[in-house]
Amino acid sequence: xxxxxxxxxxTGVVTVRYPAAQxxxxxxxxxxxxxxxxxxxxxxxxxxxxxxxxxFDAAGRRAGLDLARCIFCGRCAEDPWADAVxxxxxxxxxxxSRDDLRIEVVxxxxxxxxxxxxxxxxxxxxxxxxxxxxVLGRSLHLRHLDAGSCNAxxxxxxxxLNPVYDVRRLGIDFVASPRHADGVxxxxxxxxxxxTAVHRTFEAIPDPRVVIAVGACAASGxxxxxxxxxxxxxxxxxxxxxxxxxxxxxxxxxxxxxxxAIGRLDARRRPRxx
Length: 274
Known about the structure:
By secondary structure, the chain is α/β, with parallel strands linked by helices. Helices cover 23% and strands 18% of the residues. It has helices at residues 2-11, 119-136, 152-159, 195-204, 216-220, 251-261; strands at 33-35, 52-57, 60-66, 85-87, 102-106, 112-113, 140-146, 172-174, 183-187, 210-214, 242-244.
């Protein structure tokens, strides 16, 4: 017993201070791609997840990036597009809307364009966040639902419960029954076999309830997409409150998204810059 206490004192506190203090990801971490306007941007065929799109208008070629579909593989930042695309370091990417996860730049032109934010949508998101924060802001119980994931996002979720991230210090915990939960965290694309279970889990959670889509598959369908065996992203089945991009997202990124969902942090507005 004495040796255990000595080892604990030698180890010290291992829990990160995030979100009270900014977390610095490791050197090998890949955040979202940053498109450089006015450069030779990659064509859609480069992206294995279909996150890159393009169209042409009077301004020229417009290249778009859907962060909800992006798996941050880095192929778009390889030669010959290394000068046009770089891999960022940002992990605080959670957003209330898919539109906030879409970036558009004009190739061969320094101007940067993006869809204008909807004031009605922003006002509605703020109202819902305020209501949820008043009820659930300091004590949140979540039910994790694996709707068909590869388990990568599940491992990152499990990491939130270890001593390093210790999500319980923020009043957040995971429960076994949806009837004891305040919301549901969904990982993976919604497979057809689990579509009914997703509905029933959601319906068993009392109001007000939050739905958080974790990872590229849950946010958009990811590489799996929509087909005979998959319904696609969670928003095809349930009303999603927060999307957390990544494949998989870092534990801090998931924690950021959860705090955004209950109104304790503001959703990060993606910079539309190259």
